[in-house]
Amino acid sequence: MKDLFGSPGxxxxxxxxxxxxxxxxxxxxxxxxxxxxxxxxxxCYLIASMGLQLLWSFGLACFDVHALRLKRDLHNHIFVSLFxxxxxxxxxxxxAASCSSxxxxxxLIKDTTICRTETKLSCxxxxxxxxxxxxxxxxxxxxxxxxxxxxxxx
Length: 154
Hints:
5 helices, mainly alpha
């Protein structure tokens, strides 16, 4: 298999996974601490999706740390197949949650006066959380693409 940027068991792969964990945790924390997030199902879906992405990325980051410490090669066909499926599933869920939450934010801010009149909603925090979710998805999309290339080269 090829040795690509972001491959499992490499320092670049560990950095991608750590970035995914950080931005997913930040998005989840900001959204969960925002008042009124439960008013929209899309925001609850974003919390669930970022929680899943956090768990997946943290697990793979731990796997990368283990491989780096023991100097093991993770370019096994079975491992790469598992990583491909997991990355693509979490990437799809994260993109769907981010886009749906962004749509709700656009509706609340641009099309209604709810964010200007309601003091119970934290519209600014909603925007920050969705922005962090998109950054986390972007890092996951890079990992997904690398995993797909690795699986295709096997």
